[in-house]
Design a protein that fits this description.
The protein is built from seven helices and four strands; from the N terminus they run βαβββαααααα. It is of the alpha+beta class. It folds into two domains: about 70 residues, Glutaredoxin; about 100 residues, Glutathione S-transferase Yfyf (Class Pi), Chain A, domain 2 (Up-down Bundle). Helix 1 links the parallel strand 1 and strand 2. About 30% of the residues are buried.
Length: about 200
């Protein structure tokens, strides 16, 4: 299998972490894709040009980090990152939705900041910056939920990759005034898979 990624994408980081968490390093080749470049050869592999993108052994391509992570999870032995089979499934979906919403918003913000200064939208930046603060407040309240203290799961992986975007955006100050969230991050970010997939820093 071939997994196409970029070093700065939090979605690609999720897939790269899943490869490590499930011990699939010998089965999945990680390939750095050239994205957001005119006429990139990567576009002949994945028409959308997005990452991550997994080409399975039979040649079928999978896009979207949640789908790729679910597929990789079931390859490496017993699935560990699926929704709970018991009555907690709605709570799991609720929290995963919050984590997804936050990572999507911060990604839009970061993408806007990579544009040339004259092409950036101040309105989008302000909107996403404010949304990120509201979502950080929400997570300060939700971080004590049992599903955030259980064995490492997809909710935690998603939130971890989102908060890790602070390394690429100095304005993403989610720690200030949120000791519970900060404590959770410090504990969970010690995972080897998180350290091994640290994003490339902006130049």
């Amino acid at each position: 299998m071939k997994l196409y990624v970029s070093t700065g994408s939090p979605y690609a980081r999720m897939a790269r972490m899943m490869v490590l968490e499930k011990g699939l390093g010998s089965r999945v080749e990680i390939i750095l894709a050239k994205t957001r470049t005119a006429d990139s050869p990567y576009y002949r592999i994945n028409a959308s040009g997005r990452v991550p993108y997994l080409v399975c052994d039979d040649g079928v391509g999978l896009e979207e980090s949640s789908l790729i992570c679910a597929y990789l999870d079931q390859l490496g032995g017993e699935p560990q990152f699926q929704l709970p089979a018991d009555g907690r499934w709605l709570e799991a979906r609720r929290l995963e939705g919050f984590a997804r919403s936050m990572i999507d918003g911060v990604s839009v913000w970061n993408r806007e900041m990579t544009r040339p200064a004259g092409e950036r939208s101040p309105g989008i930046i302000l909107h996403e910056k404010a949304r990120a603060q509201r979502m950080a407040d929400l997570w300060e309240r939700e971080i004590g939920h049992p599903l955030m203290r259980d064995a490492f799961n997809m909710i935690q992986l998603t939130l971890l990759c989102c908060l890790g975007l602070e390394a690429r955006n100095a304005e993403f100050r989610w720690r200030e005034g949120r000791p519970k969230l900060d404590d959770w991050f410090r504990r969970v970010s010690a995972r080897a898979s998180f350290a091994a997939t640290a994003p490339a820093l902006p130049v």
